[in-house]
Amino acid sequence: MSNRLEGKLLAFDVDGTLLNYRGELTERTISSLLAAKEAGAITALATGRDWGALVNLRKQLPDMEFALCTNGTEIYDHFGELIYERQISLEMAKELVAAIRDRIDGVAIGAGINKGIIGEPEVVNAMPPGLEIPQDQIVDDIVSALKPAIRDLVIYHQDYVHRLDELFSTMVDVCNGFDVAVQYSGLPMMELLPTGSGKGTALAWLAQHLEIKRENVVAFGDGLNDLSMLEWAGTGIAMGQSEIRVQGAANLVIGTCEEEGVAAWLETQINA
After folding, report:
1. Which of 39, 112, 34 lies closest to 74 in space, CA to CA?
2. Residue 212 and residue 228: Cα distance in Å, rounded?
3. pLDDT along the chain (272 residues), means of 10
4. Residue 85 CB contacts under 8 Å (≥ 6 apart), including other chains
5. Interior/surface letters 161-177, b for 16+ CB within 10 angstroms, e for the rest
6. Which residues contact 211 (CB under 8 A, 6 or more apart)?
7. Gap between the terminal Cα atoms of the chain
8. Contact at 8 Å (CB) between 257 and 14?
9. Domains present along the chain, CATH in parentheses
10. In this structure, are residues 137 and 119 in contact, taking their beta carbons and an 8 Å threshold?
11. Three-state DSSP class for 241?
C-alpha cells in the first residue's frame, strides 16, 4: 500500500467539518488526522474562530501544525506564535459601526480583538456550541469596548437566515469606500474583514511560506466562509451537508460531519 498525502498541505474548517453538530471531535477523526501527519502531510485548521476559542481543540489535536484563525486574518504556528495578520483600524471600526447602524435596524455587533472576541448580547447568544464568550467580554455597546488590534467585525441580525442576500447586499453597499470586505461567516452572521484577507488568501500565503505548490493543497469546508479556500486549493472538498453554492465550488463532495466524512476520506488516501 502507498499513501497519497505525503508533502500535501491539508487545511480543515472546524465547525461542521471536523466537528459534528454537537461540537464534538470524534476519536476516529482524531486518529485519521494523526495518521495523515504520520503519512507526511502538513495539517492546519482554517476556522472562523479566534485563537482563544481553539483551546480545547488544540488539546485534542496537539500535533496540528498551523491555525488560520478568524477567517484568515491571522495564522498561528504550532507554538502559538503569530506569523501572519491583517487588521482593521480602530477609527475605521468605529466609523463602520456608525454607518451600519444608520442603514440597518436591529443589528448586534461583535469584534475580534487580539486573541479573543467581544460582543453585544445577541451576538453571544447566536454562537454555536463550544464557542462561549466570557461574561466580561459581553458588552451593551460595542463602540465603547473597541480598542486597537481589531481583526474583524461580526454583524448579527435576527432575520439573517430569511433575508440573507438582501442584508448582504445592503452591507456591501454600506461598506463601499471602507477598506474592508464583506463575507458570509461560518456563524449566522455577516463578517467584515480587512481587504485582502479571507481563508483563501491566508491559505495561499501559508502554502507559499511553506514552499508547497497550489496543486498539493487540499482544503475541507462546509460553509460560505470556506468558498475562497475551496476555490483556491488544488483540491477543494465540501462536506455532504454543505449548501449547493459550497458544493459547486469544490472538486469533491464527501460524507457529512455526522458521518465523519473527513476521517473516511483521509483513510482512503492513507490506505490507497
Report:
1. 112
2. 18
3. 84 96 95 96 94 92 96 94 95 97 94 88 81 84 94 89 85 94 81 91 97 98 94 98 95 98 96 72
4. 73, 74, 75, 151
5. eeeeeebbebbeebbee
6. none
7. 6
8. no
9. 9-85+198-270 (3.40.50.1000), 90-194 (3.30.1240.10)
10. yes
11. coil
Q: What is the DSSP string of 4-30?
A: S-TT-EEEE-TBTTTB-TTS---HHHH
d(CA 16, CA 136): 28
Task: Identify which of 230, 191, 194, 189 has the alpha carbon closest to the alpha carbon of residue 106.
Answer: 189
Collapse the DSSP code of 143 into the 3-class scheme (helix H, G, I; strand E, B; otherwise coil) and give the result: helix
Residues 206/238/194/187 CA torsion (nearest 10 deg): -130
pLDDT score, position 186: 63
Question: Could you tell me the pTM of the whole model?
Answer: 0.85
Q: Which three cell numbers stand for residue 205?
A: 500565503
Nearest to 7 by CA among 46, 36, 47: 36
Name residue 122's amino acid: E
